[in-house]
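Issue: copy button drops trailing tokens. Both records pasted manually instead:
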Amino acid sequence: MKLYANLSIRLKIITAIALVLVLMLINGVSSILTLQTTGQTVDTLVNSMAVERATSQDMVSQILLARLYGNKYISGKDKANLDSYNQEMATFDNVLASAEKQISNSERVASLKIVRTDLKNYKETFTAIMQLMTQRQTDMGTILDVKGPEAQDSFAQIKASAIASNDMPLTQASSVAEVSVALMRLDAFKYLQEGDPAMVSKFNERYAQATAAVKELGGISLNSTQKQFLDKANIDLLAYKAAFDEIATGYAQQHDLQTNKLDVLGPDIRKAASAISDSIGADFQSSAASTTANITNSRSVQIGMLIGALLFGLVLGLLISNGIVNPLKKVTEASRRIAEVDLTRLVQELREMAHGDLTRKMEITSQELQVTSSDEIGKMASEFNTMIRSLRDAGEAFDDMSEY
């Protein structure tokens, strides 16, 4: 403060203005830094989190589409659905590859690894089901659709021969065998259409009836042609039964793979992808809220600094004005007192002395001013004090002259 008081008035004013400008500059720099931080956060929200969230949501959509077409293919065996499934899976692989490049958060990276592993298992399981379906179609086309009709035809040939020879026991036994094979084929067809495990039991019952009929036919006297038909029918029945058992086993495996693999892995992949999307969404909201709070706080700080700068400028201006006005008032008061009192009295005393009264005394009432600074006002006060001391010296000289 002492150093400031010794500055000239011009420097005091310049210093005050400079201080206010510095505060304004600090406020401006703070605003710029806040804008930069906000811009970086907005850039992260728009260019990073938004893209990551869109990618994770794409993963959710892709697994749903892939499962839809996959299930439709398994149930309907329509190749168009298989093509759509493969296309959606290829798209899913691309989306997942993009997500692995974009996402860096450790928790979300761990979720992506789960998605990658589950997706690999899902595709392997779907491939295994396709292989079972392909094998089933092969068995149906090369065995069931061939051996069944052939066995049934062999029994029909035996029946026709028995009718021709009027052999009633043989006719009856061959008819039972033919009907049993027909019913067995019907049960197999229903099972293949519906996949109902109950139809397996019915098939086995029909097969037992057919084998019993074959055994009964074996106990009847047959000619060589009839025996050949019977042997061929027996071989065809065994092949048909073996193929059906393989298909039934494949159906059970397929059901197990669908129930315990596809129907579990699919929802797990969707949940993991949704968790990534939700996590990104939560971070997005948190960052947005933090940015809003920072902007609000920054606005409050800037307004506070602006008000502070204004108040500081007003207080400093008041101090400077008081530092100028108050000393000037004292100088003015001292000047008035000198002019109205001391100089008037000095003139009066000199007049009295000029009229011959040598006993007059002169008393100077003005007091020296207190000098508190070295600026222009302080220098003026010092010069004014010099003038007062000169008046006192003149008064003392006047008194000394009066004594003589």
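Record 2 (pasted manually too):
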Amino acid sequence: MNEIPAGSTTGEHVSLTVPADATYLTFLRSAVAGMAARTEAGVDVIEDLRIAVDEAVTLLLNSAEASNAVQCDIWLADHGITIEVSATAQGELPGVGDDSYSWMVLDAILNELRVENRGGRVTISMQRAWDRGSAPVTA
């Protein structure tokens, strides 16, 4: 996704690139929490987003190439947030789309979740509405 999700009137987008190392998860979690805190998101939603970023990036790190970086893009919309994390990965991501703990957590706390592999670059896209019962963030 290289544009602001449909329905966004805030137009806010942040992109971060960090080394493919678990010690940098703190930066990504903090960035997502900071963006969400500027909206109507409640404390529980913000904590869910921290967990989602942690789980998604961990899935990427399990397969990311050693010299790789992880990119995290965050888009705010009036009614929710879209987060994409991506990295160059070796083969299939372990724990994606199955009954792994990470995947079950992501599926439980997000409105929409998908994984794409484009030429070895794996992207995990996550959407969360501020009101959990509402429709996906993008139209």
